[in-house]
Amino acid sequence: MSNYNFQVLRAGINTTFQDKGRNNLYHIGIPFSGAMDNRNYLIANYLAGNKKNTTVIEFAYQGPLLKFNGEKICLVITGDVTFNIIKKNLNVEKGNCYQSYYLTDGDQIDILSTNRSVYGYLAVSGGFNVELFWNSSSTNTKARIGANNGEKIKKDSLIEILKPQKIYPLKKLKYFNSKIEQIRIIKGTNYSYFSKDGKKNFLEKKFIVSKLTDRMGMRLEGPKIENIVDTNIRSEGLIKGVIQVPPDGNPIIMLSDHGTIGGYPKIGVVISADYDKLVQLQPGSKIKFKEVSLFEAENLYKIYSMETQNILNQIT
User: Fold this and answer.
1) Phi/psi at 81 (5° precision)
2) Which residues touch 105 (CB under 8 Å, ≥6 apart)?
């Protein structure tokens, strides 16, 4: 057992270990998983002085309350998050996202809530001492794979921290999490299955993010999307961001822990450039879809990637 660790005093609602995910396992039914909001995941690691694929703690809505045991570490939280640092002498410091802090023995980090978003990220300099499953620590609780035996982080457990080789200087980034209401998509493989009115509803009307949303999928409520061919098809491969329409006409967007095959027709696919902002939409949020071409989607992803790298380059 490392003498650097977090004692979990409160686990939070949905707290797991995540990294960039696992590649090329769809053929055996394993999705990519990984951090839901890739940009905020990367920023957290860069501010903590870590490599790109270092394991972080991802939390949703209410985060954990953690007590640090060890000499000194550098800690960062990213997202739209309210948190406090409780010093050993019980002095409370209000924390700011995108700013690194030092914790010393006995200090606590209290992640109270995400605000106008769903997911936040906690990174420590050096990273966490966790097991890899198929070269990734990402936890998929549905499949029970990844770090922590594929389970959420629980109260009273100990989270081992790799002792940092050096104490990184404190850093700060000015970053704003912008909201998104218009989600850009490309046509799905079964787009022709839907009626003219169904397609019109899909592209012109607004939908509401339902409470039935997790790391596996996002269910939407709104105008029904009519299928005039077949509401059930032979199961086919799925990818992250694909939009299935079950018989009730309410679309489901496949997210990071999605099943790798499915038998509902696919009307569209959310473009990769919009995925980070999509997953941060809370239940009750309104969204509208906009069709773009594959060529546009590729260029938008290039722009997104360049913007992300430019943000990371600001962290020195």
Assistant:
1) -130, 140
2) 68, 69, 70, 71, 72, 88
Left, alpha or beta for 254 (phi > 0: left; psi -120 to 50: alpha)?
Answer: beta
**167: pLDDT strictly greater than 80:** no
What pLDDT score was predicted for residue 152?
97
> What is the CATH code for 182-313?
2.40.100.10
Each domain of the chain, given as residue ranges in start order, spans 5-160, 182-313
Per the structure block, which two tokens stand in for 2? 């490392």
pLDDT, tens digit, 9 for 90 and up, residues 189-228? 999 999 999 999 999 999 999 999 999 999 999 999 999 9
Tokens of 194: 């839907």
Q: Where are the beta strands (DSSP E) in the chain?
A: 5-10, 16-18, 56-60, 65-69, 72-78, 81-86, 92-94, 101-104, 108-114, 119-124, 158-160, 182-187, 206-213, 217-221, 236-237, 242-244, 252-254, 261-262, 266-270, 286-291
Place of tokens 């993010």: 209
pLDDT number for residue 20: 96
Model-wide pTM > 0.85: yes
Write out pLDDT tens, residues 228-275.
999 999 999 999 999 999 999 999 999 999 999 999 999 999 999 999
d(C-alpha 103, C-alpha 111), whole Å:
14
DSSP string over 74-130: EEEEESSEEEEEE-TTS-EEE--TTB-EEEETT-EEEEEEESSSSEEEEEETT-B--
pLDDT at 2 over 70: no
> Which residues, in sequence order, are CB contacts of 224 under 8 Å at separation 6+?
198, 201, 248, 249, 250
Contact 18/29 with Cβ under 8 angstroms? no
Helix (H, G, I), strand (E, B) or coil at 313: helix
Q: Residue 282: what residue type?
A: Q
pLDDT in tens, 130-150: 999 999 999 999 999 999 999
CA 301 to mean position of chain CA atoms: 18
Burial (CB < 10 A; 0-12, 13-18, 19+), residue 96, is exposed
Residue with token string 């860069």 = 46
